[in-house]
Amino acid sequence: MARARELGTTALGTTSPNPAVGAVVLDAAGAPVGEGATAPPGGPHAEVTALAHAGERARGGTAVVTLEPCAHTGRTGPCADALIAAGIARVVVAVPEPTALAGGGAARLRAAGIDVVTGVEQQAAERGALAGWLTGVREQRPYVVWKVAATIDGRVAAADGSSRWITGPEARAEVHRLRAGCDAVVVGSGTALTDDPQLTVRDDEGRAADRQPLRVVVDRSGRLPATARVLDDAAPTVVSGAGDPATLLAELFDRDVRRVLLEGGPTLAAAFLRAGLVDEALVHLAPKLLGAGPSLVGDLGIGAIGAALAFEVADLTPLGGDVQIRLHPTRHTGGDTRTGGDRADGRG
Q1: pLDDT per position as a tens digit, 137-162
Q2: May I ask the CATH architecture of the domain 2-128?
Q3: Could you tell me which of 176, 241, 242, 163 has the C-alpha nearest to residue 203?
Q4: What are φ and ψ of residue 94, in 5° steps?
Q5: Would you list the domain boundaries of the chain?
Q6: pLDDT tens-digit readout, 320-339
Q7: CA dihedral defined by 343, 138, 128, 12, rounded to 10 degrees?
Q8: Angle 104-88-41 (CA atoms, 0-180°, nearest 5)?
Q9: Which residue is catalytic, options 47, 68, 174, 280?
Q10: 47 is catalytic
Q11: In terms of pTM, does the model score above 0.70?
Q12: Could you tell me which CATH class the domain 134-329 is placed in?
């Protein structure tokens, strides 16, 4: 299942509005013989790719998949039927299907005599590559990852406004990998004016990636100049005048965006945090002190320590001389499970 989750992660940024699923096929003796991840919409699902790699070796074997195989026909056929036709004897699932449209896969497999186990490492899978899609299903909005680089005293720039470079090359390379795994990158007009970022995905050699996320600038006052780098032809760009984060996310959801990287400055970050619309935080901390300058987040309207926004540490990753802290809010972020977005249109 760990490998299946990893495979799902490799598909992030390419599958929306479909889920980024990973699958591994084991032969009857338990040896891995095939693996796959969800292709872009219209392409094969993870299970189908894994079965194609396995061929006849799949017969009598086990399929391990991060999301319950679908039972409906969308742009592709039901994955449950493909598993049955391949002669799979057992299916191990992390996350049960949450929508009415594509549900019933486990029941169809069991009816065909296949042993089905669900809920294996479910929380890890839900917080991994499936997080964006599941948020879309449950809350009808994209999943928001807030990324910020700061000194250890929480400054995102010096007193003179300079901010390049707070972190080192390894952390900056990680930002490009993060962008590649998201459908959209969001900044405010203040960041666009101060830093004039291009917000593209580039490799270690500085070459532009083939696939670029949507660039989004929140500009309520029309301050963004026509010469801004974010308006070049390197990637698609949307300039939004949305008055609040919820409205912006609704606009992006309608564009099939399911995973957002929030790279805006302290003011925009504070707006998302106040609205309870940050699902994950990635803080890149540099071992430096400034003592003055803007802090990593603006006013949250919190006057007492007991009212502080609380997070749990998911992991710590060294990035050269810096460190990445991955955090999840401890607030409840659920909502009613509904037939939403992508699955309503068919997972294809």
Answers
A1: 999 999 999 999 999 999 999 998 88
A2: 3-Layer(aba) Sandwich (3.40)
A3: 176
A4: -85, -60
A5: 2-128, 134-329
A6: 999 999 999 996 433 333 33
A7: 40
A8: 55
A9: 47
A10: yes
A11: yes
A12: alpha beta
